[in-house]
Amino acid sequence: MSENKKENNSKDGLVGLILFILVxxxxxxxxxxIDSKVMSDVDTLTSHEVRGxxxxxxxxxxxxxxxxxxxxxxxxxxxxxxxxKLQREELEETRGEFIKQNETLQKQRFENTFFQLLSLHNxxxxxxxIKPIDGETYEKREFFVGAVKDxxxxxxxxxxxxxxxxxxxxxxxxxxxxxxDIQHDFFHKLEKDEIKNLQGLTNQDIENFISEPIENKEExxxxxxxxxxxxxxxxLGHYFRNLYHIFKYVHKTDLIGDQEKQFYCNIxxxxxxxxxxxxxxxxxxxxINYYSDKPNLGYPNFKYLIDQYDILQNMNSRLLLxxxxxxxxxxxxxxxxxxxxxxxxx
Length: 346
What we know:
By secondary structure, this protein is mainly α. The protein has helices at residues 2-38, 47-126, 143-153, 170-178, 192-199, 203-211, 214-231, 233-252, 258-270, 274-284, 301-309, 325-331, and strands at residues 129-130, 138-139, 287-288, 297-298. Strand 1 (129-130) and strand 2 (138-139) form a beta hairpin. Helix 3 (143-153) packs across helix 10 (274-284).
């Protein structure tokens, strides 16, 4: 800006000098013209006419000052035009700086709330505690290890008996059904309890579990998880309600752009452990009425956010209770924003 001002001042000085020179030159040549053309015929004129011409000659001085004044007006107009242009440019720059400052303040406002919610989430996790069927106590992040274990071993359909099937490919399962008397190479994928449970199943048990209609599996899953949730709702309700509102806050805020929303959702996702993702997976597929007449946790509200921001992309599907649960999850994708999201957040 300072360089532009220097350049403009130089131009203005040059314009003023040119106008001044033009006025002086015009006056000078007018004076000479009167001397050479008019005053040369002075002998043929009367004394009164001579005095009149002589007065007219010096009257050119008035014309000089009038012309200089007119040139000054033109020069002033040019300066004002230049100043107005500079003022407009400065106003645009000021407006741009104000917009940037406003965006920075908005982002700081968002981040203050966001990181407070994230800090609260970690505080909630630090207070979690569960004592599942194995009798051990799981606290803090280990809570989710115990929670998934409890969901697996206390289920009425006994998911734990079939857990080996989630880790084996179809060909490996068929090989096992075809020959149970050998130690198959794929046994290295399984825990000792999983091998024992697998060997305790008949081929018909395996076939029934695999071929059961997906609709039946979905209904069983929802029943099992809802029973599990209400068994530990004191811990799970607080945890999922806060986590859900973190993602919902990011989704609904107008303080950041859409690309930044994905970035902040990724920050939250990075805080989640492997077993935590599994529990979120099952929670998102089950409508949960937590002190409400309508589902307010799980499906469809939380499922929409999970689908929207791909929150479970790093989940290990081998930890699922049934391989086909992933099929149920994909089938029930929520594309439309829930009606409860219509309330705007800051």
